[in-house]
């Protein structure tokens, strides 16, 4: 089984990646392969509402990397969507990918995949819940099975400002590990 982690952060090796790595620990212990990619490593343009994908599955006339990354996501058994909070939302790069996800939605190619959300905000009241809702709605829209850590309200949330500060957030790191445990349970439960 394979989980693809989509990191919405532009900061390589930052707090969002540290949270992904914490989530990956119990997944790897359960023999689930975890691969992490940065959205910023792909050229993802905004959707232009042409609606070509509605009539031609997996076709988009926009010349960028969206279809390439969405196909990688479709090939995985589970997805981790992770982002720092920007203005009470996910990053613009991740938002563009989410908006373009109508491409796999038409054929229901993400349906029944296990999804786990990770959000990191700079302050205790940094908009984590609002950003988390965006990722949760992506999962619901796609018909995915949502993994939730114990007491996690739908995803793992952490608080950190400077690079590495997430290591001080013991509850945030714990929620990331619990998310990985729950994702592993669900992946095994729905393994066909």
Ordered list of secondary-structure elements with their pairings:
Blueprint: E1 2-7, H1 15-29, E2 33-38, H2 52-55, H3 66-75, E3 78-84, H4 92-100, H5 102-105, E4 114-121, H6 128-142, E5 145-146, E6 156-159, H7 170-189
Parallel strand pairs: 1-2, 1-3, 3-4, 4-5, 4-6
Helix pairs in contact: 1-7
Describe this structure in words.
The structure is a single chain. This protein is α/β, with parallel strands linked by helices and about 190 residues long. The chain has one domain: Flavodoxin domain (Rossmann fold, 3-Layer(aba) Sandwich), CATH 3.40.50. It has 7 helices and 6 strands, in the order βαβααβααβαββα. Strands 1, 2, 3, 4, 5 and 6 form a 6-stranded parallel sheet that branches. Strand 4, helix 6 and strand 5 form a beta-alpha-beta unit. Helix 1 crosses helix 7. The longest helix is centred in the last third of the chain and has 20 residues. The chain is globular, with a radius of gyration of 16 Å. The N and C termini lie close together (about 10 Å). The model has no long low-confidence stretch (mean pLDDT about 95).
